[in-house]
Amino acid sequence: MRAKMKCLVLFCSFLMLASNQAIAQQDKLPDAKQVLADYFKAIGGEEKVSQLKSMQMEFTIDFPGVGLQGSGVSEVGGGGKFRQEMEINGIGKQTAGSDGTTAWEISAITGARLADEAEAQTTQLANSGPVPQYTYSKYFDKLECTGIEKFDGVECYLLKYTKADQNPVFDYFDKATGLLRGSRQTVVSPQGQMEVETTYGEYKEVEGVKFAFSSSMQVGPGQSMELKTKELKLNPKFEAERFELPDEIKSLKK
Question: Can you give the pTM of this predicted structure?
């Protein structure tokens, strides 16, 4: 049970969010902004993507390595504002969020806690909008296409995003379709820094924009999390107080 708890704490913190051999390539690599433009086009067009301001997603979650399952709701309000609530069978309720400045978590395991600066930056970036990559050119200091690598058996353009004093973020875009196939980054969690690799699949169209309805997160050998989207709503209207800090979190800031 202790192993299950440790694994759950680890992945809950990552939610608030295989080595690959480079392929020899003689062709000139595209500019990173062009790869992103092709991605936006592949999922529905940059004009439609630019109109997405908020999102609500119902999901199921499975931790195969420890035999735990659950379900939840994630809400993104833009500008780093988000709120996520999920119920894990046999564990209880886990809630996380951010008002755009302060990231936090309340769980049956850890209680209420404030995310440190590095963790907050990671979670707020991941929840910067329904399509986070649309905000990357404003957030990161440098975006570059560093090569072509195989990810999940598919040739992909590898994009690297860097910002001073932060770990780089990597995205893998399918060379043939333009779709996002995976991502990789070193994240900060209550257990320290860890390498996380995420695979995306089952793209479905919602109001003219394609989203990955399944994702699998791998953290080292034997530690994985699988997430399936049940329902996704675009541009829902949230009450202003929806993303306010809970009282338990406010008390920690005093």
Answer: 0.86
